Each structure stands twice: as structure tokens, then as C-alpha cells.
Amino acid sequence: MNSGNVVIHVERLTKYYGKTPAVHDLGFDIFRGEIFGYLGPNGAGKTTTIRLLLDLIRPTAGHAQILGMDVHRQSAAVHRQIGNLPGELGLWRSLTGWDVVEYLGGLRGDVPRAYAGELAERLALDMTRKVGDYSSGMKRKLGLLQALMHKPAVLILDEPTNGLDPLVQQTFQKMMQEVRDEGRTVFMSSHVLPEVEHICDRVGILRDGKLETIQRISELKSVRFRWMTLHLADVENHLAVQTAFARLPGVSDVKVENGGVRFRVTGELDAVIKTAAGYHVIDMEYVEPDLEDIFLEYYGEKKS
Fold it and tell me: pTM of the prediction?
């Protein structure tokens, strides 16, 4: 992508709490009209990164820019261009949904009530009830609404669909795609991997405060590994079949059952094909990994 389209620029961003690093030496660019997924388990540093971008905490080292503006020195100007949904949302329990929208809209001065009402309708949110009577899912909907209602150039969302039912999650995904189509940018942290895989253009995988990789989802899925299942006729010696495939370069997690052998393979398939030629192969299945497989791979775990 053209560097002139960089919306979020992070360079050597580091945050220590005492001697403990929360994030270390982060560096990435996020572009105009992009949905960027920021992945990692609890404690990986996702929320710390977001708080640094919002200037809610200050870095130990490094810096970040949004829309060409330094997030600390020009924080007020940056905040005018951002819609934010925090992971933990504090709202006024005695106010109705409309009261919250009108109060926040009054502070911004640029929120059309009709558009807020349209968002509420799409999210199936009752704006006449008091926030204190809202369920956790309804509060999350209101949080999304306040982040979207002024049509910001940049959305920064921390676990945006946490607590939402599947239908509302689908609505959220469609909204994010509309934001992207309008040339606006979304930075969203999440652990909901199928959702990220469905709507994000690129992902960054965070581990112990460090970025393991940043890639387009299509590239990330193609460079790692694949699952193969060979359905064989007349398999009598399961151990011999398992041993034959397990010794091949790039092959792991070999399992023989129900007349077939299933394994994970990385790299070229030449050795696999030549070994399979020694058997009567009835059928073959070849499956690309989903994002969850890849995510667990980066964390050194095996998916059962």
C-alpha cells in the first residue's frame, strides 16, 4: 500500500510497568480503508497498545501517530477523528440510551440524531431504557453506537463483539465492511478468530508484548501448514502407516483411524505423494488451516 495512505503509524513503541514489559518495540503501519485485526490472548498487550494510541498512558519509549498527528502532543486533535470502544465500558446508569447519545453528541457537536437512531435500529437497541436496566450485551451495543455515531475517520475497538449475540455480530461485521468501503480505518483487538478471519484485511499476532507477525490473512494461511487426509484401502497395520508418514520431512501430528491417515504438512508435498503412491488411495482431502489453527501454532500449542 502507498505510504501516503498510512493512518496509524507505530514506531518502537514500548511500555514498562516497573521492570515488567507490557509491550516492547512495536512497529507497524495501518492504512486508509483497512480493517486491521490485533490478536492475542488476555495479557498479551492488546489493551495496553490501545491505551497508548489513545494517549491514556504514556510510552516508556517510542511513539505513535494517527492521521499524521502525534498521539500525545496533538491528542485533542487526534481524539476528534477517533471513535473508540474500550474493553471495559463505563456508562451513566441513570441516563437513557438517548440521554447518553445527546450528552456525548453535545460534547462533540457533530452527531446527527437521525444517524444515531439508524444505528440503534440496526443494533436492535432500545434507546428509551435507562442504562442501569441494560444487559451487558445492550451496553456493548450502546458502546458501539457512540463509537460510530459521528462517522470517525478511525475506529479503535477493544473486543467489540464481546457479549453480543450472533445476529448482532453479523450486523457489526456488515457495519465494519461499510466503514472500510467508505475509506475509513478500523483497528480492532479481538480473540474471536472466525470474526477476524471473516472481516479483517490484515492481522497482527501479539505474544508477550511482542509482534510475532503482521500479514494479510490470505498470506498468513498460505505460508504456514495444511491438513491432509488420505483415505486408504485395506489398512491392516496402523503403526506401519503412521511410521511411514511421520518420518517424512514437514509432516507432523499423524493419526491413523477409520481407514485413513490424517496429518499436518508444511512445505513441499513431493515426499508425501511418493509415500502415498505405495498405498491404495481411495480419496484425499486437503484443508487450509483456519486462523485459529495458525494462532495456536504461534503460541506453541496443538489443536486437538
Answer: 0.78
Please answer whether residues 204 and 39 qualify as being in contact, where contact means their C-beta atoms are separated by less than 8 angstroms: yes
What pLDDT does residue 299 have?
Answer: 65
The span from the CA of 277 to the CA of 281, in Å, is 8
User: pLDDT per residue over 96-130, tens digit each?
Assistant: 999 999 999 888 877 788 999 999 999 999 999 99
Report the alpha-carbon distance of residue 275 to residue 97 in Å, rounded: 64
Kindly write down the DSSP assignment for every residue of 261-284, as one continuous string: EEEEE-S--HHHHHHHTTS-EEEE
Distance, CA of 283 to chain centre: 35
Sort 205 into a burial class: Cβ within 10 Å, 0-12 / 13-18 / 19+: buried
Reported confidence tier of residue 7, pLDDT bands at 50, 70, 90: very high
Q: What angle do CA 29, 33, 38 make, to 5 degrees?
A: 50
Count how many Cα atoms sit within 13 Å of the Cα of residue 177 in the half-sphere of its side chain: 11
Q: What does DSSP say about strands 6-17 and 20-31: parallel, antiparallel, or unpaired?
A: antiparallel
The secondary element (H helix, E strand) that includes residue 188 is strand 185-190
The rounded distance, in Å, linking the Cα atoms of 101 and 123 is: 15
Phi and psi at 204, nearest 5°, equal: -115, 130
Helix (H, G, I), strand (E, B) or coil at 3: helix
Task: Give the integer Cα–Cα distance in Å for 173 and 258.
Answer: 39
Please tell me the distance from the alpha carbon of residue 9 to that of residue 53, in angstroms, as a whole number.
Answer: 10
pLDDT score, position 302: 44
- Burial tier of 78 (Cβ tally within 10 Å: 0-12, 13-18, 19+): buried
**Which pLDDT band, with edges at 50, 70 and 90, does 222 fall under?**
low
Cα dist. 167→121, 164, 170 in Å? 13, 8, 5
